[in-house]
Amino acid sequence: RLAPSMTMALLLRFLCRAAGFASVILGAMEMVLSRGLNRVIAPWIAKEGLPYNPKMHLDKLEDRDRLYIGINKGLTVLFVYHLMLAAWRLPSIAWSWSELRLANTAGSLALFFLSYDLFYASFHRLLHCRGIYKYVHKHHHRQISPTRGNYDAINVHPFEFFVGEYLHLLVVAIVPAHVVAVGLFVAVGGLLASLNHTRLPFRIPLAIYDVRNHDVHHRWPDNNFGQYIMLWDRVFGWYRDYEPPKVA
User: Fold this and answer.
1) What does the angle CA 247 – CA 231 – CA 32 come to, to the nearest 5 degrees?
2) Is 112:179 a contact under the CB 8 Å cutoff?
3) Taking the CA of residue 116 as centre, how many other CA atoms within 13 Å lie in the half-sphere pointing to its CB?
């Protein structure tokens, strides 16, 4: 049995390490997905953004918006911890540089995104069902013309955010990969999800990814449920092409 003083010392050490870990994750989110996206990445992508109707923009964040954003930042820290723990313990995740292959990096990364969006698009579609929508996903659709990047991206009901994040963990558990692919999956995924909620006309050729696809979803909520790719939306008949909004 540990003495009270030793128990307190272990608790304080754990809290300090947890606080340090949280600071690193939240600091990275703020620097890369918020400030970095607007100050560094945005000018590099384009001088002019996608048009939008100012009347369809949520100009001021309310108390519930700030509460959800704060909770979801905390859930992000928890998710990253569980992801690191899973990657370390899963036998399907390789760590040695000698095991690095094209198949378990680029190949696994492609399978990560394909698998994730199959699960996510289905879950997202479910959130739009009558009887569920108003309790969870309706909050996110108060913003018809996203502009804030990461802040608009994580301004969702915490239940929705939790499921969306941990679907990444599910995919990592079922697709064998090198840890490099896992890191790229989470980093690139976070960046693309943030870009989805900007006016930046960024796209990856061959119809792999296009910011405009998610802009369509915010204006026509019954279309384009995928987070990263539109493959499953095309398969299930949910896809809709981008149309510039009327700004006058």
Assistant:
1) 65
2) no
3) 26
> How many whole angstroms separate alpha carbon 28 and alpha carbon 85?
19
Distance, in Å, from the CA atom of 162 to the CA atom of 160, rounded to the nearest integer, reads 5
Amino acid at 112: F
* Cβ–Cβ under 8 Å, residues 200 and 141: no
The 10 Å Cβ neighbour count of residue 205 is 7
User: How far apart are alpha carbons 95 and 58 in whole angstroms?
Assistant: 44
Read off the pLDDT of residues 70-94 as tens digits, 9 standing for 90 and up. 999 888 888 888 888 899 899 999 9
Residue that the structure tokens 């692919």 belong to:
181
Structure tokens at 203: 């796209």
Record the tokens describing residue 197, joined without a space: 């909620």
3 state SS of 93: strand
- Tens of pLDDT, residue by residue over 29-61, are 665 566 666 665 555 555 577 888 778 888 899
Separation CA 119–CA 104 (nearest Å): 21
Report the chain's terminal Cα–Cα distance, integer Å: 72
Kind of pairing between the strands at 93-94 and 203-204: unpaired
User: For residue 136, what are the β-bridge partners?
Assistant: none
Query: Quick one: tokens of 204?
Result: 């990856």
Which letter does DSSP use for residue 91 in this model?
A: T
* Alpha-helix residue ranges (DSSP H) falling in 90-178: 108-127, 150-153, 158-174
Q: CA triplet 151, 24, 176: central angle to 5 degrees?
A: 85
Determine contact, residues 209/192, Cβ cutoff 8 Å: yes
3-state secondary structure of 178: strand
